[in-house]
Specification:
The structure is a single chain. With about 800 residues, this protein is mainly β. It has 6 helices and 43 strands. Helix content is about 5%, strand content about 55%. It has a 22-stranded antiparallel beta barrel. The N terminus is likely disordered.
Length: about 800
């Protein structure tokens, strides 16, 4: 059987060919671009050939036969359309990791999720600082007046962002990653995508689970939950806890001790009230207390500075003269109400999130503490979403609602500078360079920003079944985003006066439409094309040198994303293939760059940028006892027009044509798991592994990071493994696990601080020293679980 379909317009042509025979399936995709310039050649050619372990109906004689069990891949439900739907029937690029996989493979953070999902980078510098990028959205700023292009939702409540976007993954139904703009249905500031975390709700069936873990460096962890009825058929409750501690294990060369341990605990409680068959009320709260070591800095260089003769560039050692400390407290409240009406479901989601965090760390990571940072974060946020959802299974289905968010944010940053005498900064200050005179003596810079955010939106989306096989979806969201606040800068150096700016205020509005067409040519094969607009509000940075600059907002970000995809469940649902290609065209893409002099991240806009790529996910069950998986993404992310003005008469800096930072061109995750009965029917065994490859990344908009650093950012096969024995009744379980078993290390974050390490002569000879962060080293352990 051959099926052909062609989608074409002025921007791209998609030709998808599916050929199914008795023992072979091939899928070929070609993406062609306009014939001018670089697009005269094919941008992408992806060919996948998968041997069919199980024949389709009408297979040739002699082909391998299906297992008598008729086993199939599990159907996965998602909430990407604000209602439950099957993953294979949902016409958007979405990936799902379920709670069982999270438990078995010890996926404890979103960085673990990112390794398995196409087109996502989760840059977790430490427990207190993490940034998410999907399809090239830029990352890296923590100011109160700045938002990110990817939002995290916990049970449909948006988190505050920085400090609240890296929750521990336990007691979960699933984690869904939605790629591409999701502004029609999901909150605010989702130009890159959204991450949906769904916890396990209370149950009216009494149950519980307790898990204890022991691992490397005296890692000790206790997780557990208990759920059951409080009032029969009316009120159920659940309590879940997670406590983790790990000894300091990273050698500090300067202080002759260890750092980088973990010490955190969290609790979640929920009540489910169902007084009537058509009313469901979920009330919950969560709290996290984290006093882990915090932001540790590593150094990487291409020579040994004469002023710092004992520096180590090993990923297993740090040189910082002051170990990092964290005191982070995050809490939240939730009320989720579903009322079934004769014509629709009325849903109210009310959320409250609070972050209080104090961090101390050495920004420069050197023995003399040239730069010490002490940031304080205070965030309070309330949100409300009220929506109506039509019943499923109708020819016309729809979702519509209103959204409101109010947040009070404060970021109080104290940075102490004490450049070592003889370094390039100190030497140039002595030579009379006015802008560097401050480095002649120690000084303290305080930048305090208080910002209030108000977000209002009305949204709607409807899907009409033109024919039983052809559906059209249209939707739109009208957003109004307001930010007002004030900023105070206090500088004890002799060159910079104190600054005070505010109150400043600005409102941005945007209409973000969406159109989508889906087609099912045959059963279990669905194709779609879509066009979606995304919007991220503007904001205020804290790096201006005048009051006017501090009160000047950078521009909002807009994107038009064009996507085409195919989802197929083949070979009696033993093979699933999800493939998407996209073209995202950005206007005023928001950027963040590290300033090596001030040690701050500076926000701005690139006039135009574009991100094009493809994403492939394959899941196969060739035989009943073996599951295979592949996730792959190709990303071509470039600035098309990006000029940064400089002080006259210097010409502007031109970053046009450069690669957008933190966006690997290729990334892939291969995984396999076998599951079978233990000998003598003594339980069940699962053994699995996955390996991740990722090409190198750029770390700044100038793309001028030395190539030896860029080369160290590639993932050369990071291997994870797990082996689980469970009793026949699934009540007892033991898991041996290993994360990064082959101890492959890669740089995940980099910033040039050569000015604080080099003498003038060393700098002129190309001496380079930077602060860096590495992925986690090998960790192994055992987890024992008991269900009751």
């Amino acid at each position: 059987m051959d099926y052909y379909t062609i989608f074409a317009n002025k921007k791209y042509m998609l030709i998808a060919w599916i050929n199914i025979r008795g023992d072979f399936m091939a899928l070929s995709l070609k993406l062609g671009m306009p014939t001018h310039g670089i697009w005269r050649r094919w941008l992408l050619g992806t060919v996948l050939a998968v041997p069919a372990f199980v024949p389709v109906a009408g297979a040739e004689q002699g082909a391998p036969q299906a297992d008598a069990s008729g086993a199939q891949l599990e159907e996965i439900l998602v909430t990407a359309q604000r209602r439950e739907s099957k993953l294979q029937d949902t016409p958007i690029a979405v990936s799902v990791i379920d709670g069982g996989e999270i438990q078995r493979e010890r996926l404890i953070s979103l960085s673990d999720i990112a390794a398995k999902v196409p087109s996502i980078t989760f840059n977790q510098v430490n427990h207190s600082e993490s940034f998410i990028s999907i399809r090239g959205t830029t990352i890296g700023n923590d100011a109160a007046g700045i938002d990110q292009g990817v939002s995290v939702f916990i049970d449909e409540v948006p988190t505050t962002g920085f400090g609240d976007d890296s929750p521990d993954l336990y007691d979960l139904q699933s984690v869904e990653v939605l790629r591409g703009p999701q502004g029609t249905l999901f909150g605010r500031n989702v130009t890159g995508g959204a991450v949906l975390i769904r916890t396990m709700p209370p149950s009216f069936t009494e149950s519980g689970r307790a898990t204890v873990t022991y691992g490397s460096d005296n890692l000790m962890e206790v997780q557990g939950y208990d759920t059951g009825p409080i009032v029969a058929e009316t009120l159920a409750g659940k309590v879940a806890v997670d406590v983790r501690r790990r000894d300091d294990f990273l050698t500090n060369i300067a202080l002759h001790d260890k750092t980088y341990g973990e010490n955190l605990g969290s609790v979640r409680g929920q009540l489910l009230w169902t007084p009537f068959s058509d009313l469901r009320v979920l009330i919950g709260g969560d709290y996290l207390d984290d006093t882990s070591a915090g932001k540790t800095q590593w150094l990487v260089g291409n020579f040994q500075p004469s002023l710092f003769p004992t520096l180590s560039y090993s990923p297993d050692a740090t040189n910082q003269g002051s170990n990092a400390r964290t005191d982070k407290k995050v809490g939240g409240l939730l009320t989720h109400v579903d009322l079934e009406l004769p014509f629709a479901t009325l849903t109210s989601v009310t959320g409250y999130r609070k972050v209080d965090e104090h961090v101390h760390f050495s920004t420069s990571g050197d023995p003399f503490n040239s730069i010490i940072s002490d940031p304080v974060i205070h965030d309070n946020q309330i949100s409300e979403e009220l929506r109506m959802t039509s019943p499923a299974g109708q020819r016309l289905t729809w979702v519509g609602g209103l959204f409101y968010l109010h947040a009070d944010r404060a970021y109080l940053q104290t940075v102490s500078f004490d450049a070592v005498p003889g370094t390039r900064l100190n030497a140039f200050a002595q030579f009379g360079v006015p802008s560097l005179a401050r480095f002649l003596s120690p000084y303290v810079n305080q930048a305090n920003q208080h910002v209030t955010v108000d977000s209002r939106a009305a949204f709607g989306e409807s899907t009409f079944e033109i024919t039983p096989k052809l559906k059209m979806t249209v939707g739109a969201r009208y957003s109004s985003e307001s930010k007002d606040g004030h900023t105070e800068i206090s500088d004890t150096s002799v060159t910079n006066p104190s600054l005070s700016s505010g109150p400043y205020s600005k409102t941005w509005t945007a209409l973000t439409p969406k159109a989508l067409l889906s087609f099912e040519p045959v059963s279990n094969v669905m194709m779609y094309v879509s066009a979606t607009k995304g919007f991220e509000s503007g904001g205020y940075d804290t790096n201006g040198t005048t009051n006017a600059a501090l009160a000047s907002a950078y521009n909002p970000e807009y994107v038009w994303s064009y996507e085409a995809g195919i989802k197929a469940a083949l070979l009696d649902k033993r093979l699933q293939i999800n493939l998407a290609v996209y073209d995202a065209e950005y206007k005023d893409l928001q950027t963040r760059n590290f300033d090596p002099i001030s040690g701050n991240i500076i926000a701005g806009n690139a006039a135009k940028a574009r991100v094009r790529g493809s994403e492939l996910e394959v899941e196969a069950l060739p035989v009943e006892w073996l599951t295979l998986g592949l996730s792959y993404s190709y990303t071509d992310a470039k600035y098309r027009s990006y000029l940064i003005p400089n002080s006259p008469p210097a010409p502007p800096t031109d970053n046009s044509g450069h690669t957008i930072p933190f966006t690997p061109r290729n990334s892939a995750n291969f995984r396999a798991e076998t599951h079978f009965r233990a000998p003598g029917s003594a339980g069940k065994i699962r053994i699995g592994a996955d390996v991740t490859y990722r090409s190198s990344i750029e770390f700044n908009d100038a793309n001028d990071t030395p190539r030896f650093i860029v080369a160290k950012s590639a993932y050369h096969g990071v291997l994870n493994m797990h082996a689980t024995w469970s009793s026949n009744d699934d009540r007892t379980e033991a898991t041996l696990w290993a994360k990064n078993l082959n101890d492959k290390r890669a740089i995940i974050n980099n910033a040039d601080l050569s000015n604080f390490f080099d003498t003038v002569a060393e700098y002129n000879k190309g001496g380079y020293v930077s602060i860096d962060n590495w992925n986690d080293p090998r960790t192994v352990g055992i987890s024992l679980s008991k269900r009751f």
